Amino acid sequence: MEKKIEKQLSLPLKNALQMSLRNFKIRFGRAIIVTMSILLGIAFFMSIMASNVFTMALIEKGPENIRTVLVENLPEIKVKQRWLVTLSLLVCTVGIINSMLMAVTERSREIGTMKCLGALDRFVMELFLLEAMIHGIGGSIIGSFLGILIMTLVYIAQYKKIILSIFPTLTLLKFVGISIILGTGLAIIGALYPAIVSARMEPAEAIRREV
Amino acid sequence: MPREVIVRTIELKKTYMLGKIPLHVLKGIDLEILKGEYISIMGPSGSGKTTLFNMIGGLDKPSEGKVYIDEVDIAQLDAYELAWLRCRKIGYIFQTFNLIPVMSALENVMLPMIFAGMTTDDAREKAKSLLETVGLGDRLHHKPFELSGGQQQRVAIARALANDPAIILADEPTGNLDLKTGKEIINLLREMNKEKQVSIITATHDLKMLDVSDRVIWIRDGMIERIEDRENLDIKVGHVEGEEAG
Question: How many domains does chain B divide into?
Fold first, then answer.
């Protein structure tokens, strides 16, 4: 009976979260680069989305002259937008996955060390996924607002203040939500693969691995 | 009274595949290490001592043969039990120290205790006293990069002792240290060995280690060349001392 209790291994979530946050703080420079790539990917995605939303808002509520021009070109705009959205998603995905891959791989030795100290594969995964989540949430919140800001400025330059009077706040917030889910999801997916590989390695191998 | 055998290897072999050519790193090692012994595994680079070290520590899997730690065949353990073994039974010390860079000395020592399920407060107390034991009572909150090599290795020793293991495995513990610091680390290991009755197994080619070892196992080309007790060693020290200068 006693043996059973004694055989527990644990990493409380509180400690894991603390470790991840500390990692973020101390490797701030490195963390910012990882977050940046998420931020830029999401900003790109969001700016395309925002430009869509603005165009639709102008078609619905804008002045007559702008509306006719836009409606006339709508099919063409739609095709172009679809391309851009696909492209932005691709850039975003590749960028995020790549940087998460680097972030985890370069810490292979640390993973090996932790496993020597008795960390289960699960602990390693937990730590890296938590960190990816922090990167993902931070990067996508800032990124999505940056995307909106840029597109707002672009549309103000083009259509003057009309855009502010018909500003589609709710629709944009919906896309902010989507962006956050997307960014965080991609960051976690990006971290998942290298984290699984590293966590499953024999500790000796993980320590030896040079990056 | 016969002493307890803590590590036993039987016909231990390890083969790496280099492309299609098999490379036999260990060619059948039979070994018994007793509780509380201080063992040095000596041999030139490439002789397979680090590989043997990894096998004994459960850090890598043997191709053939068996490793028993505390009479448990480690090949029979699942991932969880193996992690538990690494956490509770074995302490590791590396040539490159391998401290977690973002954690302070104290937190590095606390980590294995937290894995072992100790509360943060208890772990902190114990880590403090361990760091005091290794002479770093005034460096608790320093990060690894703020410590010298010798100090980092002391933190690593404290960390290895965290869960009162039966065995400490040290792979070239003095390899990255200067002569004097290396000596201090060796003495510290010996002290811990005597004080806590923990078996210490070092893979090394540092001849300073000979002075403190109970037995020296010489490895060459993946085989045990000879095993010497300390009593017999003293005669030979004169012979090897010439190599130390080199």
Answer: 1
